[in-house]
Amino acid sequence: MSTHDQLEAMTLADILVVMNGGQVEQIGNPLEHLTRRPATTFVAAFIGAPADESDFSAARLQYQG
Length: 65
Hints:
By secondary structure, the chain is α+β, with helices and mostly antiparallel strands. The protein has helices spanning about 5-10, 30-35, 40-45, and strands at about 15-20, 25-30. The chain contains three helices and two strands; from the N terminus they run H-E-E-H-H. It has a two-stranded antiparallel ribbon. The protein is elongated.
């Protein structure tokens, strides 16, 4: 099955493949892998709220020790 409808995909699928520009971004169970542990910002935005409602901030973690 192939769909661009996120709700349909999340509801019906056991495994989802999220693609971006013909490249696979992430494969996994909709709840366990894609929603809780998105591999990329693209997957997080695609699975989460619509892009105009998403709030992503750039950050850098620096270890001092």
